[in-house]
UniProtKB/TrEMBL annotation:
NCBIfam families: SigBFG, sigma70-ECF. InterPro entries: RNA_pol_sigma-70_dom, RNA_pol_sigma-B/F/G, RNA_pol_sigma70, RNA_pol_sigma70_r2, RNA_pol_sigma70_r3, RNA_pol_sigma70_r4, RNA_pol_sigma_r2, RNA_pol_sigma_r3/r4-like. One of its GO terms (molecular function) is DNA binding. PANTHER family: RNA POLYMERASE SIGMA-E FACTOR, SIGMA FACTOR F FLAGELLAR. GO terms for biological process: DNA-templated transcription initiation. Residues 1-11 have a biased composition (Low complexity). This is RNA polymerase sigma factor. Residues 1-61 are annotated as: Disordered. Residues 12-22 have a biased composition (Pro residues). Keywords: DNA-binding, Sigma factor, Transcription, Transcription regulation. CDD domains: Sigma70_r4. It comes from Streptomyces alboflavus. Residues 115-128 form the RNA polymerase sigma-70 domain.
């Protein structure tokens, strides 16, 4: 009689195992080795540090777009209101790079850059107050001449210790530009005549402009000349001629003598120009010496009363 084994008590077969891959030997070719599982990729993290800066062209475009939006808002606001002042201040702050760009052109003037930027900001504010967005002009194009003009006015009126007329200063700018152009064209420094012909002015005006362009600061007369080793200007000035006082006195005496009678004029000439004594004068004129003395005293009194300097 055959025994029947219940299904629940039958032994379970072991799970089928995958055949192990034999380890690759050193002699096996690379393609015969088992492929390695790719390493687990770590989760990507954002790079540390500040975000990359925008390109200058992108920043300039953003500034122009922001400026247009702010001017559109400013146009509809009443001057003097809080909102008007807020938008106006935002325009000033957004266009400060324009002022710094203009101020950088004057770095060679040995003036604190903070002062130059402050003066240029005044020009920027004036440009904002005068700008009309409906005219179809970009604000930087409109504002740059105003900013540069304000800075140039500052250097002309406040920095120079030697005052130069405005026309001469503006002509000096033209002379400088013409000099640079002619130097590039000729490959050498141009002459005064060539600059004058280029600008259609006289050579004297060119020399005056060059001298005015160098006259930013006054130099002490006692300061020694740089480079040539010569003494100061004060040591090279001419001495005071004592005969200059005599010129003034003779001119005054000539003016006063014509106011005396002819005989008194002759007596004074004989006494002080011919060096005659009173006795010799009395013999010359046929009068007494006492009378000559009285005439001299009277002439002196008239001369003193007519002398406006002593009066």
């Amino acid at each position: 009689m055959a025994l029947t084994v219940p299904a629940s008590s039958a032994p379970e077969a072991p799970p089928a195992q995958a055949p192990e891959t034999p380890p690759a030997r050193a002699t096996d070719p690379p393609h015969a080795r088992a492929p390695e599982a790719p390493p687990a990729q770590a989760a990507e993290e954002p790079p540390a540090g500040p975000p990359p800066a925008k390109a200058p062209s992108s920043r300039g475009a953003d500034t122009r777009a922001l400026t247009q939006v702010l001017f559109a808002q400013l146009k509809d606001l009443e001057p003097g209101t809080v909102e008007h002042g807020r938008v106006r201040g935002a325009l000033i702050e957004a266009n400060l790079p324009l002022v710094r760009y203009a101020a950088a052109r004057f770095r060679s003037r040995n003036e604190p850059m903070e002062d130059v930027v402050q003066v240029g900001t005044i020009g920027l504010i004036n440009a904002i107050d005068r700008f009309d967005p409906d005219r179809g002009v970009q604000f930087p194009t409109f504002a740059m001449p105003t900013v540069v003009g304000e800075i140039k006015r500052y250097f002309r009126d406040n920095v120079r210790t030697v005052h130069v007329p405005r026309r001469l200063h503006e002509l000096w700018v033209q002379v400088t530009g013409a000099t640079e152009d002619l130097t590039t064209s000729f490959g050498r420094s141009p002459t005064t005549a060539e600059i004058a012909e280029r600008l259609r002015i006289t050579e004297e005006e060119v020399l005056s402009c060059i001298e005015a362009g160098r006259s930013y600061h006054a130099t002490s007369l006692e300061a020694a000349q740089e480079g040539d080793g010569l003494p100061g200007l004060l040591d090279r000035l001419g001495y005071e001629d004592p005969a200059l006082d005599g010129v003034e006195h003779r001119d005054l005496v000539r003016h006063l003598l014509v106011q005396l009678p002819e005989r008194e004029q002759r007596i004074l000439l004989l006494r002080y120009y011919s060096n005659l004594t009173q006795s010799q004068i009395s013999a010359e004129l046929g009068v007494s010496q006492m009378h000559v003395s009285r005439l001299l005293a009277r002439s002196f009194a008239r001369l003193r009363s007519a002398n406006r300097i002593e009066a």
